[in-house]
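This part of the workshop introduces the protein records we will be handling. An example says more than a description, so a record of this kind follows:
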Amino acid sequence: DGTRLIVRENQTTGGTLKLRVLRLDPSTSLRAGPSTPLSASPSTSLGASPSPPPGTAPGQTEPLLQRPFNEPNGEISPDGRWLAYQSTASGRDEIYVRPFPNVDAGNWTISTSGGTRPLWARNGTELFYLDRAGAMTRVPIQTTPTFSAGTATTLFATRYYNGAARGYDVSPDGQQFLMIKGAAAEEAPTMVVVLNWLEELKAKLPMQ
């Protein structure tokens, strides 16, 4: 809802990484977690402690999928009903969708020629991901009366920086992307040294 940020603490407490929920005001709350936050379900208010699943304690983590594949970058749909993720189940990274939180109730293949780093459009009718060549790809999604995915189309082929997790975001209207652009290959690394910067600072911002 635009009022909170979920971040991972750099420091550890007792050897356990922490996920911190930051309100956009002075108050904060703390959640325990073992990894990097990727997505939040809209079905539970971040301002209150959620009711844990049966057999689990508040703050306790529970694996959704335990399979012998690399399956990172899980993204929950805006309505909280679907989980998009990438998996090496086919022998290479592809994008899949499962129901959430009952992930064993179905499984749909979204990409067919390689895909990583999925992201839902805010209206839940589109799924974005990077294809095997790094091009931004769009797939229309229909969830009623049953789940189905349309034909994938390439939006743009320009490659941008992406780390291990998703390194881009899309605007609420789905019309603009925020991405990290690397330096051109022909540009040599440079270093800028500024001399007498304190005098310039004094001139621009007189010290009291």
About this structure: Confidence is low (pLDDT under 50) at residues 44-51.
